[in-house]
Design brief:
Elements (H helix, E strand, L loop, with lengths): L1 H18 L8 E5 L5 H9 L4 E4 L2 H7 L8 E4 L8 H4 L5 E5 L2 H14 L3 E6 L16 H9 L4 E7 L12 H15 L6 E7 L6 H6 L4 E4 L1 H4 L9
The chain binds pyridoxal-5'-phosphate.
Pyridoxal-5'-phosphate binds next to strand 8 and helix 9.
Length: 232
């Protein structure tokens, strides 16, 4: 099932990329494997996927040792400060930096380990109360502050768009995040590259790609639905 789903998702990505005059290489598919067992991750791995997204530190710590070393793990869920130390050297990118104080904690632990940590700032573009993330007007100042932290490299922005029936409803959200990214990039801040836009999930990744996403995070569309307990 995973292989067939992946073929379908890949085709959809190719269609959107073509439609928007972009190259396939500009978009990374992240298979969101939260709540799913290692065997299913291995199936996706065997179909060629190397980027996997998890939203809980514990799950990354459990699954990583069971799976091939060349998997690139992405932390996409809200990160608690007391879990920072355990996860920063296990993942290639933290998508969900949602406060300056979390960045400070990452800086502190990265300095201790002598590593650099790549991050995205999570932006609550839709202003949903239930969601984490910076508000749009706060982002530039946060980027300036975090850019001064020597062990952190800001690669771009991430958003979780609202759950909608029709993905067109989220197009404006993706456009806003893209524009913000371009705007911040144009300021050429040291330590900040702004080349990554992580947006789009199973329901709306095609629209997100049309609006400039460079990473899409697809869970259900690859691995099937999750049980309520694992929902997030
Ligand atoms: C669960 C999750 C996804 C994937 O959601 P689907 O709708 O299953 O594709 C993407 N991003 C984040 C941050 C998530 O927590």
């Amino acid at each position: 099932m995973v292989q067939e789903n992946l073929r379908y998702v890949e085709q959809q990505i190719e269609d959107s990329v073509k439609k928007s005059g972009r190259n396939r290489e500009e978009v990374t598919l992240i298979a969101v494997s939260k709540t799913k067992p290692a065997e299913m991750i291995r199936e996706a791995y065997e179909a060629g996927i190397r980027d996997f997204g998890e939203n809980k530190v514990q799950e990354i710590l459990e699954k990583k040792p069971m799976l091939p070393d060349d998997i690139r793990w992405h932390m996409i869920g809200h990160l608690q400060k007391n879990k920072v130390r355990q996860v920063i050297d296990k993942v290639v990118l933290i998508h969900s930096v949602d406060s300056v104080s979390l960045a400070e904690q990452i800086e502190k632990e990265a300095a201790k380990k002598g590593i650099y940590v790549d991050i995205l700032l999570e932006v609550n573009v839709a202003e949903e109360e239930s969601k984490f993330g910076f508000h749009m007007p706060e982002v530039e100042e946060a980027v300036q502050t975090i850019a001064a932290m020597p062990h952190i490299r800001i690669k771009g922005l991430m958003t979780i768009a609202p759950f909608v029936e029709n993905s067109e409803e989220n197009r404006g959200i993706f456009k806003k995040l893209y524009d913000l990214c371009v705007d911040i990039k144009s300021k050429n801040i040291d330590n900040v590259s702004m080349n990554v836009l992580s947006m789009g999930m199973t329901g709306d990744y095609q629209t997100a790609i049309e609006e400039g996403a460079t990473m899409v995070r697809v869970g259900t569309g690859i691995f099937g639905s999750r049980t309520k307990m694992g929902e997030n």
